[in-house]
Amino acid sequence: MSRISNCFEQLEAQNKKALIPYVVAGDPVPDVTVKVMHKMVEMGADLIELGVPFSEPEAEGAVIQVAHERALEHNVSLRDTIQMVADFRQNDKTTPVLLMGYINPIEKMGYEEFAKLAKAAGVDASLLVNVPPEEGVELEIALRKQDIDTIYLVAPTTTDTRAAYLCAKSTGFIYYVSLKGTTGASTINMDEVETRFNHLKQFTKIPMVVGFGIKDGASAARVAEFADGSVVGSAIVQIFADNKDKPDIIVESVGALISEMRTAMDLVSVG
After folding, report:
1. Residue 177 has pLDDT above 90, yes or no
2. What letter would DSSP give residue 134?
3. Domain coordinates in residue numbering, the chain
4. 12: number of Cβ within 10 Å
5. Distance from C-alpha of 85 to C-alpha of 254, rounded to nearest angstrom
6. Nearest-10 Cα torsion for 52, 57, 59, 62
7. 27 CB-near residues (< 8 Å, 6+ apart)
8. Would you call the peptide bond into 28 cis, given omega within 30 degrees of 0 as the criterion?
9. How many Å apart are CA 62 and CA 80, to the nearest integer?
10. Residue pLDDT, tens place only, 230-258
11. Can you identify the CATH homologous superfamily of domain 3-266?
12. Which residue from 15, 162, 224, 260 lies 20 to 30 Å from 131 (Cα-Cα)?
């Protein structure tokens, strides 16, 4: 059983939902990333999304775009990001880690090499924003050979036919984007998200999580009422932006936010 499947199975047995934080590898400096990853797990994160720095992250809002820029100032590459996962694995063999980003750096590296390096480092899944399944067959095959999951995004505007196809192609879990547009939205209508989410659940038997617009314990807990997990990105990355020159404060502040979300989510009755 994969780390991701095992994680969701254990959470279900404990009547809990997944808390999935996102950080950009190398933001604001490379030696902070692994420390933050461990701190997030310590404070209650179940899976980690590690963003691969890219020069044109078109799906991201302003907060995360600038985080990519900060990481690129230190020349953090796809290879460096994979190495961070390997470093994380020295002390954590169980927490699933997925790489989230764009196909461009992977194409440059080569699909087979990427898949082999990712597997050796302990990467569990890949979520690429700018690759529809029809154009990602070769990469998907390379990842499948290494038992790395391929995760796809489903959006509010996705038709039922398309959603069924994306759900069938996804392994590990499915990422439901709660709103139209980029990451970091200020408000979302949770009732609308819940209605659409519940409609889409008919197309899959694997877990489905919600991301975009989740920024605190209250919003994470609201999502936990109906989804299998809550993804938080911009709220965490904003802490990096506010404390660029204070790595210790970054680690502790991110840990505090994760703790708040974990506590709020665990108070939700999911029976």
Report:
1. yes
2. G
3. 3-266
4. 14
5. 19
6. 110
7. 33, 53, 67, 68, 70, 71, 237, 240
8. yes
9. 23
10. 999 999 999 999 999 999 999 999 999 99
11. Aldolase class I (3.20.20.70)
12. 224
Q: Is the pLDDT of residue 269 over 60?
A: no
Tokens coding 101: 């980003």
**36 pLDDT more than 70:** yes
Its sign, for the CA torsion 48, 58, 126, 10, is positive
Q: What angle do CA 20, 155, 200 make, to 5 degrees?
A: 90
Closest Cα partner for 136 from 114, 165, 107, 109?
Answer: 107
d(CA 64, CA 70): 10
Strand 153-154 with 174-177, pairing: parallel
Residue 20 pLDDT greater than 60, yes or no: yes
State yes or no: pLDDT of 187 exceeds 90.
no
Alpha carbon distance 122, 115 (integer Å): 11
**Alpha carbons 221 and 219: distance in angstroms, whole number:** 5
Angle of the 78-89 helix axis to the 33-42 helix axis, nearest 10: 40
- Paired tokens of 108: 């440059």
